[in-house]
Fold glucose-6-phosphate isomerase.
Amino acid sequence: MKIKNPKLWHKMPGGIIEGENVLYSRKYLKDVENLYKSKEISNEGKNTLMYEVYSYSEGDETQYGNLFWGLTILHPVYIEKECNMTKGHFHENRNCVEYYFGLEGEGLLLLMDEMGQMSAEKVLPGSLHYIAGNFAHRLVNIGEIPLKIGACWPTTAGHDYRAVEEMPFPYRIYKNNGKIELVER
Ligand SMILES: O=P(O)(O)OC[C@H]1O[C@H](O)[C@H](O)[C@@H](O)[C@@H]1O
């Protein structure tokens, strides 16, 4: 029997997920501009890279028990002082939980239940976050370097963005003169 070399890498804290069949996507400001309060975004600004997502899974995604391994990198971008954030979503399958863990940078994890009640947790290198299946989750970069967050979740979870569009997170996150401010919508 031959001992094999690893076929996948995720060198922590700063590396990306590397290997065959790793999925990669990115969001520019033009893809997520509706999330922000500001309506004064220039055409040039719309091409700003906001966040990148790497993910990996094997086999049939519809098969109960399969997992995604993920990495999200949110760049330190501020839109008129409002912090860079992911779209945020519930899982289509509300029974599916998720783990997030902080790798680099400084952020917030916003959690919102189905009644629209929100809480926020600090995300720091080494922090581990359990996300219950019935909570919407959004990541926010509140620092000055890229925020890198690892994640693990079931391939059958799905992304329900519509529920968050219909009932947005009730607070916007700003950084004003170095201070984080949560502003109610
Ligand atoms: O899809 P978003 O809400 O924009 O979040 C970006 C990504 O963040 C994490 O990596 C999640 O585990 C992914 O499922 C999600 O796609």
